Amino acid sequence: MIIYDLICRHQHTFEGWFASAAAFNAQRDAGQVRCPICDDAQIEKRPSAKVRTSRESVSDAAEEMISAQGLQNVSTHTPSDFLLKLREMVQTTENVGERFPEEARKIHYREIPTRPIRGQATPEDVEALAEEGIDLTVLPPFLLHEAQ
């Protein structure tokens, strides 16, 4: 598994995991690699020092995410198990659709009870929410679809 640091033409940086350089190229050429911030498909790769050498190793960031979610035995999860768990976690959130910025603000300012939500927001909305101190995570599109 190769982990690349990726950058879009708007200079947003993010990380991507690929089976090989050829897999990255094929997915990028098919428009499947997109910036999670602005949805730009013009992506460049920058090699990362994080390279999986076996099914038992997971990047520190992924291990921290799993640990934060209360999952155990990280080393026994294959990449597909990991993605399934992430998708399961996403599916436990309420999809508020285009009302996301409004609902996130109501939760942040304690106008309504706290609950896990997901939805759509423009890049401008994401920036405004961050400026207000509202924590959120932009989910990559592949986590929003059912496992195939």
Weakly predicted, low-confidence segments: 50-62, 68-77
- Outline the biggest β-sheet: 3 strands, antiparallel
Strand runs, count: 5
Shape: globular
Helix content: 25-40%
What would you call the quaternary organization? single chain
- The N- and C-terminal alpha carbons lie at a distance of 20 Å
SS field, number of helical segments: 5
- The overall average pLDDT, rounded, is 77
* SS-derived structural category: alpha+beta
Kindly report the spatial arrangement of strands forming the biggest sheet. Answer: 2-1-3
Beta fraction? 15-25%
List SSEs in N-to-C order.
Answer: EEHEHHEHEH
Gyration radius (Cα, Å) is 17 Å
Tell me what you see in this structure:
- This protein is of the alpha+beta class and 148 residues long.
- Helix content is 33%, strand content 20%.
- It has 5 helices and 5 strands.
- It has helices at residues 21-29, 60-68, 79-91, 100-108, 123-131; strands at 2-8, 13-18, 43-51, 94-97, 117-119.
- The chain starts with a strand and ends in a 17-residue tail after the last helix.
